Amino acid sequence: MAYFVLALMLSITVLDAVADEAQHDFILRNGMVYDGSGGKPFRADGAIDGDRIAAIGDLSNRRSRAELDVESLAVAPGFIKELSWSNLSLLQDGRSMSDIYQGVTLEVMGEGHSMGPLNEAMVQEKRENQSDIRYDVAWTTLGGYLQHLEDRGVSTNVASMVGASTVRQYVIGYEDRPATAKELGLMQDLVRYSMREGAMGLSSALVYVPGNFASTEELIALAGAAAEYDGLYTSHMRNEGKTIFSALDEFLAIVRGSVIRGEIYHLKVSGKENWDKLEEVIRRIEAARAEGLPVTADIYPYNASSTGLTIELPGWAREGGHEAMVARLKDPELRPKIAADMDMIPAEDLMLTSFENPDLRHLTGKSLAEVAAERGTTPEETAFDLIIEDDSRVGTVRFTMSEDNIRRKIALPWVSFCSDSSSQAPEPPFTYAQPHPRGYGAFARLLGKYVREEQIIPLEAAIHRLTQFPAANLRLKQRGTLAQGYFADIAVFDPQRIAERATFTEPHQLAEGMVHVFVNGTPVLRDGEHTGAMPGRFVRGPGYGR
Three-class SS of residue 50? Predict the structure, then answer.
């Protein structure tokens, strides 16, 4: 017994000595390092101290408190999700499961609509329009929302654009009219305030109410306010189909007129009859870039988009907000006029994916054509009725894009990547809907299908456009690159296994092949399992504190 106690004491002494000698918190041994620059990978060790990368190179003579053997794995900067709709999902579940399992360490939210600034009416609207995700609106500014996420606990870092639609709603509401000079000045001041709080820039979504009511001149003025703080202007353009050229011209005019950097959200050409327009779109963007205009784009690698069924309604029918829209849909005299003004995609290409009314959830996964046939009504009438019955926008997936066009866009060096979706978990309340699989698979699909299998671009180029490239566009400081002194946001994955598992019929499946993920130096995914850690932070934009 005495011998056992002596041996135990000696072993504890040795362990204490090793801990005292440790020079780093973590060392990743023998990984294939893709540093984010787009250059060829190299074999090296990586050390982490606190929230920073302490060293990269041959660290065989150094000790650490914990070591991970990553010899057969790729070690990359954490991925930046350029367009995230995790505004509400992170309030429900801060683990950000579907994104962490793909290596995402920063979510950039705010496509046209942002979580601030909010006036009293907007706060009340958010309180009243909640469904399966319930939350307290404990903020009124965009910075307040992002800080609220950090304080609650979140696994990924978070950032946001300030939405042009949001500042318009704050000042004008849902009216379809030009802003007065005084109103425009107030909207610009709201943008400036949000930029000083840490917004990444200004975003617009010009197909949704009330953003579609904004004129080009209004958007130039708002983007100009963001440009004062070196912000980025991002836009879901006014059209992505038959009038895409005029929409692109407007986007470029806003960038020129406000002297700002610009990015096109989820660049696409929708509708089979329009697919051949992509080459001219690319030509015009590259011509603008050649003249020195700082414009880029992002995409998600799927041939289907996702939005609400209400997008099929003409703009005038959506004016005034949701209640006014529903009242019009209930008016028997207006319904034929609304139907006549609709430019709806083929009903068989429109899948119904989410309902707030539990009595309608049995329709999830069916096409609008199938439901119309079951009900014996036209697709337009069926759409009206579903919106009324669900008292919501009704989630949909729309199969309108070309797979060949996706490959063409992936090959473009000025294109980065997004999911245009929320980060979810394969559990309630997320499983009450059947979302687009991009929320679980966009980045894994890129790396598995298009990089490994189809070899459209090399892995180092894909990682560059997931990391350093968007970090530079967003003006992020010390993120997006594996380098000494940078924040330790790190994705470690198996290039031979990384793959999506989510499908359109079974979307709630986590991606595979991601092994370890560090956020600000803390392991959030370890050996393929979420640790439960929530070290994510509010990442502030270039105008913060100015």
Answer: coil
